[in-house]
Amino acid sequence: MTEEQYITALTNNPHGIRNIPNPTETMQLTCVAQNGMLLQYIKDPTQKVIETALSQAPRAIQFVENPTEELLSALVEKDWAILEYINNPSDSLIQSALAQSGWAIRYITNPSKELQLEAVKTNYDALQYIKEPSEVVQLQAVQENYLALRYINAPSVAVLEAAVKQDPQAMRQITNLSKELALHLFKVSAPILGYIPNTLGVTVDEIKAIIVEAVSSDNIDADYIRELINNKAIGGRQSKWPIDLLSLIDAYGTRAVKKIAVGEYLKY
């Protein structure tokens, strides 16, 4: 067969390259232009063939011997997932991939704590690809999004505190919620009160006691006090938690707490 006949045949069936002993560059280009992954069947491809194959299928990098850092960098910048096909990627390549997606952590062998933190900062759900993440990494993930709790087995109290502070809806992600834990979490995030289920048996008096403790403390948390005051779950007789917050602040609140309360109530 002539080269022209080979090219016609390869245009119709590029996989035929596997059966041609010494294909010309033109034959090779005809194939990889249609399917870059066919690079694996080409021995000693020219730079032009390699570039054509990679432009069609970046994953074909796995079939390139000793690729340059420049070439790898260009590919990773286009698609972070290419990191999967790079052996021993440089720090620069890793940083480039993680800057695009925290999910790139899945392709990094034994990532450092710093890389893990960077990953969950970019994508909180990258946590699912980190084996046995430390509490520090878990905390960073839930601070980005409470839904990171989905990827944590037996989260610590500190992690749960960070999660409910990020969003009170985190309460819905806690599978082992007990009465004691719910009361503890209310001490750090007032908005979770509306997410405490009736089945736990938390009483109004128990909630009152925590509120009194908070408003009478010399070391007040101004944000917590504001959250209490603006908490719609606390209200009159028809509320789930019929507590007269203003009366409690008037009776037990410190001067600083009363000042915050006045400021909040004057907004309305």
Automatic annotation (TrEMBL):
Domain of life, source organism: Bacteria
Stated name of the protein: DUF4116 domain-containing protein
Lineage: Bacteria, Bacillati, Bacillota, Negativicutes, Veillonellales
